């Protein structure tokens, strides 16, 4: 995982662990190629004390809805969620530094009211609800939230990993989806593999992956194989449908975010009970076996 190196103290506790949905429409490659490139900057991105993140919204979100911040599950200030653990509607007063478009300054400090959702199972994501609405945020700062795409990025699509923590933009392409990504005791599905140009580092965890053509968020940056290890912490391995493992040293990865479209509802709440919601759910929320 590409969280800030200050988390090293946490790693012994998770040494036996390690990081790892449904079919949805894919943005056609020809549409991506023909679309005019979107301007990508730091507007909408935030810096956490240990990671990166972004203020995001669905296209259907109302101006009066509370704004939400997207980051990684492994960026929680309390430490990593365990394998199989899903956190929902937890109190939080975490703060986020909202950046100017050029990344040169902080335009506001945002405050969470609760952790809407977090997990490192199936995906590696966290979503915080803020005490500020989308309309208030834009009126007070001139910064608009980034829109979450409802489609998967196409292989070969130009992407940008925008780190609010380091104030750096990494530009590359989606090298392809990964069936499963295994890291320690964690398994992620349908991950995004980057081409080698995106050499993300510690602190870039939680950065939005922005489609270069649409300017929409298609994923969240979360890990990379640092030293060539196989399926160990900070050395994820790819596992295909047949169980074959592949190690790609120096290659980095993110997790797709289209799944939030089935689960985010009015008022910026998470409803995991919706039939169209395919996010991983707490064990208590799963239907009992017949």
UniProtKB/TrEMBL annotation:
Pfam families, A to Z: Trypsin_2
Signal sequence bounds: 1-28
Keywords assigned: Signal
Designated name of the protein: Serine protease
Organism: Amycolatopsis antarctica
